């Protein structure tokens, strides 16, 4: 008498609805894994939240910001710092991905009956949640140091949407660079390259306060587009130069992240697929 065997369908089995259910379940599992990791090691999360706050306070009270601005320098500086915080979030993404690679976590996931893309979806969802919290903390800090928005709730929500779009784009840059680097030690090397991009923007000073050639470079920085667009939506001074980039900042604040996603999303997915073979 033979025993009956039960076959449990895998993520590749069943119809389209079954595969979608597997994908959603696996992605949520990976998201919860990241959130549980932060709950077990809250120091990493706290440092990630406190560091941009310290930068904002330092530039507000010690270094000074808003060079070349007509109006309140704080209202110029805070939206720029929000954009900077979203862009530099790629560093935390890089560190988390390289740590998983170094510990062989990706290899363990590869041996499980799960949707391969769930790892990337879980990473991106968790990082976006963390970024939303960071954005709320930075907004509250800005309010505490005297920053205000003036154009109503709808415009403010539009500004938040542009900031999160920039973060989503940089997230895929971070994932791709992490898989290319492969080791957590390489994150520092990438930071050396990332920081100049942040400072070659209009986060801390207007382009017209810079030499002509440098101002032109700054105006076309994707971070500058987001910072200028967010200032416009919040009703804060932006030091508009009358250039095409400045006058179409809201359009560029959408086009730049979409272009970045179009390049780095497929690169990251293909690289991850090669790692999983």
From TrEMBL:
<dbReference type="InterPro" id="IPR013525">
    <property type="entry name" value="ABC2_TM"/>
</dbReference>
<feature type="transmembrane region" description="Helical">
    <location>
        <begin position="118"/>
        <end position="140"/>
    </location>
</feature>
<keyword id="KW-0472">Membrane</keyword>
<feature type="transmembrane region" description="Helical">
    <location>
        <begin position="249"/>
        <end position="269"/>
    </location>
</feature>
<feature type="domain" description="ABC transmembrane type-2">
    <location>
        <begin position="43"/>
        <end position="275"/>
    </location>
</feature>
<dbReference type="InterPro" id="IPR000412">
    <property type="entry name" value="ABC_2_transport"/>
</dbReference>
<dbReference type="GO" id="GO:0140359">
    <property type="term" value="F:ABC-type transporter activity"/>
</dbReference>
<feature type="transmembrane region" description="Helical">
    <location>
        <begin position="42"/>
        <end position="64"/>
    </location>
</feature>
<dbReference type="GO" id="GO:0043190">
    <property type="term" value="C:ATP-binding cassette (ABC) transporter complex"/>
</dbReference>
<keyword id="KW-1003">Cell membrane</keyword>
<keyword id="KW-0046">Antibiotic resistance</keyword>
<dbReference type="GO" id="GO:0046677">
    <property type="term" value="P:response to antibiotic"/>
</dbReference>
<dbReference type="InterPro" id="IPR051784">
    <property type="entry name" value="Nod_factor_ABC_transporter"/>
</dbReference>
<comment type="similarity">
    <text>Belongs to the ABC-2 integral membrane protein family.</text>
</comment>
<keyword id="KW-0812">Transmembrane</keyword>
<protein>
    <recommendedName>
        <fullName>Transport permease protein</fullName>
    </recommendedName>
</protein>
<keyword id="KW-1133">Transmembrane helix</keyword>
<feature type="transmembrane region" description="Helical">
    <location>
        <begin position="152"/>
        <end position="175"/>
    </location>
</feature>
<dbReference type="InterPro" id="IPR047817">
    <property type="entry name" value="ABC2_TM_bact-type"/>
</dbReference>
<keyword id="KW-0813">Transport</keyword>
<feature type="transmembrane region" description="Helical">
    <location>
        <begin position="76"/>
        <end position="97"/>
    </location>
</feature>
<feature type="transmembrane region" description="Helical">
    <location>
        <begin position="187"/>
        <end position="205"/>
    </location>
</feature>
<dbReference type="Pfam" id="PF01061">
    <property type="entry name" value="ABC2_membrane"/>
</dbReference>
């Amino acid at each position: 008498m033979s025993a009956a065997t039960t076959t449990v369908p895998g993520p590749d089995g069943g119809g389209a609805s079954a595969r979608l259910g597997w994908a959603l379940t696996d992605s949520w599992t990976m998201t919860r894994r990241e959130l549980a990791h932060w709950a077990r090691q809250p120091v990493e999360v706290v440092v990630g939240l406190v560091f941009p706050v310290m930068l904002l306070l330092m530039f507000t009270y010690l270094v000074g910001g808003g060079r070349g601005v007509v109006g309140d320098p704080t209202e110029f500086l805070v939206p720029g710092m929000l954009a900077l915080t979203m862009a530099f979030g790629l560093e935390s993404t890089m560190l988390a991905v390289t740590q998983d690679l170094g510990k062989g976590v990706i290899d363990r996931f590869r041996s499980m009956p799960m949707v391969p893309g769930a790892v990337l979806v879980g990473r991106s969802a968790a990082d976006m949640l963390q970024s939303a919290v960071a954005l709320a903390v930075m907004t509250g800090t800005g309010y505490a140091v005297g920053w205000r928005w003036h154009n109503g709730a709808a415009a403010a929500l539009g500004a938040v949407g542009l900031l999160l779009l920039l973060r989503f784009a940089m997230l895929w840059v971070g994932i791709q660079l992490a898989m290319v680097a492969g080791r957590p030690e390489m994150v520092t090397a990438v930071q050396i390259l990332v920081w100049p991009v942040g400072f070659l923007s209009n986060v801390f000073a207007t382009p017209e306060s810079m030499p002509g050639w440098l101002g032109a470079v700054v105006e076309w920085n994707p971070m500058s587009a987001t910072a200028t667009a967010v200032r416009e939506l919040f009703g804060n001074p932006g030091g508009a130069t009358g250039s095409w980039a400045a006058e179409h900042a809201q359009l560029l604040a959408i086009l730049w992240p979409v272009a970045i996603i179009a390049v780095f999303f497929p690169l990251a997915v293909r690289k991850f697929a090669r790692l999983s073979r």
